[in-house]
């Protein structure tokens, strides 16, 4: 962590002395407890990293922690605070398993073109997410190795018509047997959970492959080729997310969506055009979950406020986004990612 | 004593032992108004921790044009904005004005006596805050200035280099100046170019080095160079110099830059030189969109899952 600490500060062009680095690292190592952080807090830290609005309270909390061993640390050191937020994100990824929410929002902000404090950290979060998706299927084919230590062969030496004396020694042996039975039960339970999860993933693979053959959208009740180029990506993303049984879903989701939308010309439009071309009935049909992720938020606001009237609210919420052009696959991928999160949080 | 005062008076003998501690909270002690002089290490850290900065180290021997370059970087904004880049302030205005005063005083003379950068003082940084209208963002350009004598001491001594240029690894870019006048002089040119390779080797051996180091070899005094380019095989020498610089591409992102006048209109060698304004724009325009960063793809052949192999083989 020490080398990386200096590296990230260097990437951010902040000339830091060894003394200041030690002070910062002490707080990250000893004071801030990443293991106990809840999802809401880590998302606020992500918002600080991306310099979004409504982060004043979270910034104050972070500043207070760092002031514990450096009284000169202040809220105006916003650039450094963003770097420290990035370092906390890295810690979170390294120490926790529940990274779906963090990774999804990170991907959403990259989709919108919002600049992170250090792009390399944002890419690291994305890469770890991709890796977790890949290993979901890669680990299925590996053998499950359990370390069960066998019981001693001569624990009980019982012969016919012999008497057992229930003394301390016998009680100890019985206790050992009980412990072993507990261990075996735990392993059976773990094995059952893993097997169940593997079955879900294999079922998911099968469903996805059949769906790709039919090229039919269950949400729209039409074939994708019969949908227009604005509707198709939303439905494709949503349909794939519906088929995911084990979040975060397959690693090759981009390939799946690309195959399904291959009939569409590779035209690009701004996000506003995609959303404005969604009718209210279409949005009603599409949306069954609530989430604050960009596309779902945009669709919701469009339905509430009407065409073009949602732009300001959207720009205020996702400050600093680039006005980019998207093709149908970009929209489908984003819809899929957001929907998986929304489903998981439901 | 009037009665109402006496009733609420704090001037009673019983109150002698009372101490009053006002509830005052002092914040943001680190941030002070700039005095206009060069920033030191601590002030640079304060600035960089608040706002995005772009640090450029300016290195080179005595009289190679470093201070003139820094002064002109500021001076160009006194005429107009540089394309879409506007001047948005400086915490070191006095220092820039001091540098410029020498240029103004020597206006019209064949040579300019710029004030010598003080060798003894700690690292000094000049600050320019620029605003890019097109990208709607501000950027702080910091030029780290060290004397020519310091360069001479550091160019082949790793420890001295690490000590004197202790934030070199944080710099976005390092400029190594080569005196264009000396390139035309047969007896001086080899030493002038050797300085470059010596300092590059020293940087490589130091703890400041990293694989993304960007170096610009800046040839100064191009007006003199252009006038005398045909003398003494200067063209061949320069070509050979460029070839040797290109060999350093394995270790640095390295460019040879000939900076001439303020604007492109006055360039004597427009094919091989750039103007100061173009050079500044190239620094500021290095803005990577987050989508320019791509995740490294996994090796499909190493997958065990046939599902992932099948889908991933479709090229996205």
Outline the structure in words.
The complex is a heterodimer of chains A (346) and B (316). With 346 residues, chain A is an all-alpha fold. In chain A, 62% of the residues lie in helices and 2% in strands. Chain A has a two-stranded antiparallel ribbon. In chain A, strands 3-4 form a two-stranded antiparallel ribbon. Chain A starts with a helix and ends with a helix. Chain B has 316 residues and is an alpha/beta fold. In chain B, 35% of the residues lie in helices and 15% in strands. Chain B has 12 helices and 7 strands. Chain B has helices spanning 3-7, 41-50, 66-79, 93-105, 148-154, 158-164, 180-183, 189-205, 222-227, 234-246, 276-284, 306-312; strands spanning 53-59, 85-87, 124-132, 137-145, 173-179, 214-220, 253-258.
TL;DR?
The complex is a heterodimer of chains A (346) and B (316). Chain A is an all-alpha fold and 346 residues long.
Instruction: Count all strands of chain A and give the number.
Output: 4
Structural class estimated from helices and strands of chain B: alpha/beta
Mean pLDDT of chain B: 79
Largest sheet composition of chain B: 7 strands, mixed
Q: For the record, give the distance between the C-alpha atoms at the N and C termini of chain A, rounded to a whole number.
A: 36 Å
- Portion of residues in helices of chain A? 55-70%
How do the strands line up in the largest sheet of chain A?
1-2
> Radius of gyration of chain A from the CA trace?
26 Å
Strand content of chain A: under 5%
Reported for the largest beta sheet of chain A, the result is: 2 strands, antiparallel
- Uncertain runs of chain B are 1-7
Distance between the termini of chain B: 92 Å
Features:
heterodimer; A: about 350 residues; mainly alpha; two-stranded antiparallel sheet; 15 helices; 4 strands; about 0% strand; B: about 325 residues; alpha/beta; globular; disordered N terminus
């Amino acid at each position: 962590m020490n080398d990386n600490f200096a590296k990230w500060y260097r990437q951010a062009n902040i000339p830091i002395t060894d003394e200041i680095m030690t002070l910062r690292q002490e707080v990250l190592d000893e004071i801030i407890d990443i293991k106990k952080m809840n999802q809401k807090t880590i998302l606020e830290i992500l918002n600080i990293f991306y310099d979004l609005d409504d982060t004043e309270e979270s910034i104050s909390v972070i500043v207070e922690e760092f002031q514990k061993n450096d009284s000169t640390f202040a809220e105006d050191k916003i650039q450094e605070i963003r770097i420290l937020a990035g370092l906390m994100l890295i810690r979170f990824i390294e120490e926790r398993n529940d990274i779906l929410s963090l990774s999804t929002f990170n991907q959403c902000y990259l989709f919108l073109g919002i600049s992170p404090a250090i792009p390399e950290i944002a890419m690291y979060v994305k890469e770890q997410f991709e890796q977790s998706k890949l290993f979901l299927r890669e680990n299925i084919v590996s053998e499950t190795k359990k370390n069960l230590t066998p019981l001693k062969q001569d624990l009980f030496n019982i012969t016919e018509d012999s008497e057992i004396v229930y003394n301390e020694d016998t009680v100890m042996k019985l206790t050992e047997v009980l412990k072993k039975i507990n261990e075996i039960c735990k392993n059976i339970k773990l094995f059952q959970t893993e097997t169940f999860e593997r079955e879900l993933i294999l079922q998911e693979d099968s469903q996805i492959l059949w769906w790709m053959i039919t090229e039919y959208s269950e949400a729209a009740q039409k074939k994708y080729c019969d949908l227009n180029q604005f509707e198709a990506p939303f439905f494709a993303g949503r349909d794939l997310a519906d088929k995911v049984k084990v979040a975060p879903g397959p690693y090759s989701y981009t390939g799946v969506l690309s195959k399904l939308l291959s009939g569409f010309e590779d035209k690009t439009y701004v996000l506003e055009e995609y959303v404005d071309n969604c009718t209210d009935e279409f949005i009603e049909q599409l949306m069954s979950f609530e989430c604050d992720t960009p596309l779902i938020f945009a669709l919701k606001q469009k339905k509430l406020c009407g065409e073009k009237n949602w732009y300001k609210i959207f720009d205020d919420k996702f400050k600093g986004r680039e006005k980019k052009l998207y093709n149908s696959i970009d929209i489908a991928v984003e819809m899929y990612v957001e929907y998986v999160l929304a489903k998981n949080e439901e | 004593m009037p009665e109402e005062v006496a009733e609420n008076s704090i001037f009673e003998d019983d109150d002698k032992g009372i101490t009053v501690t006002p509830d005052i909270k002092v914040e943001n002690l680190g941030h002070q108004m700039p005095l206009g002089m060069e920033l030191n290490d601590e002030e640079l850290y304060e600035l960089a921790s608040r706002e995005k900065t772009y640090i450029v180290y300016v290195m080179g021997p005595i009289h190679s044009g470093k201070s003139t370059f820094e002064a002109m970087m500021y001076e160009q904004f006194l005429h107009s904005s540089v394309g879409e880049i506007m001047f948005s302030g400086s915490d070191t205005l006095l220092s820039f004005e001091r540098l410029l005063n020498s240029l103004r005083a020597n206006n019209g003379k064949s040579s300019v006596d710029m004030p010598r950068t003080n060798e003894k003082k700690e690292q000094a940084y000049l600050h320019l805050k620029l605003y890019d209208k097109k990208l709607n963002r501000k950027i702080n350009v910091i030029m780290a200035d060290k004397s020519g004598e310091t360069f001479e001491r550091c160019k082949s001594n790793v420890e001295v280099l690490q000590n004197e240029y202790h934030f070199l690894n944080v710099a976005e870019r390092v400029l190594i100046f080569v005196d264009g006048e000396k390139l035309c002089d047969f007896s001086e040119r080899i030493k002038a170019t050797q300085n470059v390779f010596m300092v590059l080797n020293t940087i490589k051996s130091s703890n400041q080095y990293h694989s993304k180091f960007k170096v610009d070899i800046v040839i100064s005094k191009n007006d003199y160079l252009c006038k005398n380019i045909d003398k003494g095989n200067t063209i061949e020498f320069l070509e050979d110099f460029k070839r040797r610089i290109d060999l350093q591409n394995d270790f640095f992102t390295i460019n040879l830059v000939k900076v001439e006048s303020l604007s492109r209109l006055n360039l004597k060698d427009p094919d091989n030189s750039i103007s100061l304004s173009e050079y500044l724009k190239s620094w500021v325009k290095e803005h990577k969109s987050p989508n320019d960063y791509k995740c490294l793809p996994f090796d499909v052949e190493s997958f065990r899952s046939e599902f992932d192999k099948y889908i991933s083989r479709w090229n996205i």
